[in-house]
Amino acid sequence: MSSVSVEVHIEVQTFYAQQMRLLDALDIEGYVQTFTEDGITDHAHRGEKVEGRAAMIAGANAALPRYQGVAVRHWNDHYLIEEAGENTLNVTYCSLVTRTDAEGKVTFEPTFFIEDVLVRVDGRLYTKSRTVHRDGQAKPVARAS
Amino acid sequence: MSSVSVEVHIEVQTFYAQQMRLLDALDIEGYVQTFTEDGITDHAHRGEKVEGRAAMIAGANAALPRYQGVAVRHWNDHYLIEEAGENTLNVTYCSLVTRTDAEGKVTFEPTFFIEDVLVRVDGRLYTKSRTVHRDGQAKPVARAS
Amino acid sequence: MSSVSVEVHIEVQTFYAQQMRLLDALDIEGYVQTFTEDGITDHAHRGEKVEGRAAMIAGANAALPRYQGVAVRHWNDHYLIEEAGENTLNVTYCSLVTRTDAEGKVTFEPTFFIEDVLVRVDGRLYTKSRTVHRDGQAKPVARAS
Which residue pairs from A89-94 have beta carbons closer than 8 angstroms and sit at least 24 positions apart in sequence? Predict the structure, then answer.
């Protein structure tokens, strides 16, 4: 039911574990290094497309004040992985985002659905593009008979 | 510590990623097709047992209004997989269920513990039965000394 | 990107699925048996270090009243696994903790970051030490350029 090997599955799970740790540590430089030099982040729900590491760093720095004094965590689930070519993977997953403040109180960002294209360069995965869809904006169409 | 191979583990994780996507898209027809023709869903906590795809579709359609205008997501964890026979797997896991509204506000359904029986037919997994237990209704007994 | 085999990855995921089930069932005796006899739990954020199974049982029993009438669930993500020696693994992960009451209402503990040392004895994994860091207490330093 999946086009990729168990090794690739675990490789991808580990890639996201590492990338999400960097993101949640607000380690912008480290996070951006997990993208290709020409990597793209497209927040489709707010029509905001950022291209290249330099632009991603600038955008992330601008967003930092929003995360002052809170610990952010991304909780991902339901990875589906398809081989799109040699060393290219299409990966989709869902993400729940928490914010924990100094008192330990947890609040939530919206939930998201994400479409990534990963490429393997010199044996290492990078995100080439990321398209983020915010949940709740368009009602999914039920195709019930 | 598990009776099944890594290949089966990844096969099962991928099965749930696909099935939960269909469920959360409110794609009732697609979701029901991931069950066997005689598949059973038993919501043990409300004594509601539904047998067969046709009855499952009717029941799901009746529940649809509850999800108008919100995006539902199931977040599963702690899969335990046991081989129960050739091409039959007993799978248990926990599920956290979010509802995200048009403004992006996230609210929560109760948490659940689920017991599934999966069968493999022509190389493809299907749910033969699903028993859903709502958390919080019976206090677990602590067997501490 | 990981130093361990896919078999070890699945072994570790299964270990946590089993251990978290025992913890969330408030099965203190069963949970403590997943630690080595001299196992250590260190709640770094409150300077509380508990050493050995007997002390862990006493501590857990003292904490039980806090969980009267609610179902607790730990939701883990982003496991990173490093081989630290023969039959010794360093595992880190994040944990979201829910409490579901009799009415099904879900509330949240703070989120956590956990560092475990696992050892394999007679082919079976045990936690030798667990260090728990509560999120939100120290703001992560952004190393952005």
Answer: A89/A4, A89/A8, A89/A12, A89/A117, A89/A118, A89/A119, A89/A120, A89/A125, A90/A115, A90/A116, A90/A117, A90/A118, A91/A12, A91/A115, A91/A116, A91/A117, A91/A118, A92/A116, A93/A16, A93/B17, A94/B24, A94/B73, A94/B75
Nearest CA distance, C29 vs chain A (angstrom): 28
Its pTM stands at 0.93
**CB nearest to A136's CB, from B30, B64, B71:** B71
CB contact under 8 A, B110 and C102: no
- Size of the A and C interface in Cβ pairs below 8 Å: 95
CB C78 within 8 A of CB C96: no
Residue contact A103–C136, C-beta within 8 A: yes
B84 to each of B81, B116, B118, B122, how far by Cα in Å? 9, 11, 9, 18
| CA separation, residue A121 to residues A37, A87, A125, B124 (Å) | 12, 7, 6, 33
Quick check: helix, strand or coil at residue B92? Answer: strand
Q: Sign of torsion, CA C130 A107 A136 A38?
A: negative
> Alpha-carbon distance B43 to B66, whole Å?
17
Chains touching A (at least 3 CB pairs under 8 A) are B, C
The model's pLDDT over A66-115, given as tens digits with 9 standing for 90+, comes to 888 899 999 999 999 999 999 999 999 999 999 999 999 999 999 999 99
- Examine the pLDDT at C143 and tell me if it is beyond 90: no
Per-residue tokens: C79: 């496991």
C131, C135, C139, C143 alpha-carbon torsion, rounded to 10°: 70
User: Can you name the residues that pair with A126 across neighbouring β-strands?
Assistant: A119
Q: How far apart are CA A130 and CA B8, in angstroms?
A: 29
Q: Which chains touch B (3 or more CB pairs under 8 A)?
A: A, C
- Would an 8 Å CB–CB cutoff place B85 in contact with chain A? no
- ipTM score of complex: 0.92
Q: Cα angle vertex A87, ends A82, A90, to 5°? A: 25
Query: Which residues on B lie below 8 Å from A136 (Cβ)?
Result: 70-71, 100-104
